[in-house]
């Protein structure tokens, strides 16, 4: 684990910004990806960019690498050349996050048979109207839980006969991670605000420019 990331959790100003600004930014992300009142899957990419932007704001653009090859599918960003995965999930409790997006049952099975955690993880638990948080799971803790639970209990395959969207970390694995004494966290109260948002205004304004 790169020790620089710990400054994110010890910097009082940054912690306060995360607690006050992240709910609003994630609410805007939902509004931006909403259609007919339903949030689309693209919200995950927007949330990821918000978190990467936080890292750039805190550590400087020169220390945050975002242009990563597709050969590193688990890695979303590198901080001081240290690979990090970014995961977000809405809801309370210990529901697991997607480890890989695939609709192919054979690919899902192959993934289960070969997957081993390979980098640190930033995890954001979004819990509107309640408490969630921003968490940091160092790789060594992920591996500890992976080895203790075993592959079959750490990874949850989609149910047969369903239209799966991917392979998930099990709720038991997520519970073990969230309750581990070695993780880092910022508690967040997820409150929505009244936001006037027009998804088209930015583009209309650009069309209007000479």
Description:
This protein is an alpha+beta fold. It has one domain (3-93, 119-140, 171-208): 3-Layer(aba) Sandwich (ECO RV Endonuclease, Chain A). 40% of the residues lie in helices and 22% in strands. It is built from 8 helices and 11 strands. Strands 3-4-5-7-8-11 form a 6-stranded mixed sheet. The chain has a 3-stranded antiparallel sheet with strand order 6-10-9. Strand 1 (34-35) and strand 2 form a beta hairpin. Helix 2 (12-32) runs antiparallel to helix 3. The N and C termini lie far apart (49 Å). The mean pLDDT is 90.
Which range best describes the helical content: under 10%, 10-25%, 25-40%, 40-55%, 55-70% or over 70%? Answer: 40-55%
Q: What is CATH's topology name?
A: ECO RV Endonuclease, Chain A
Element string (H = helix, E = strand): HHEEHEEEEHEEHHEEHEH
Beta-strand percentage range: 15-25%
Summarize the structure.
The chain is α+β, with helices and mostly antiparallel strands and 210 residues long.
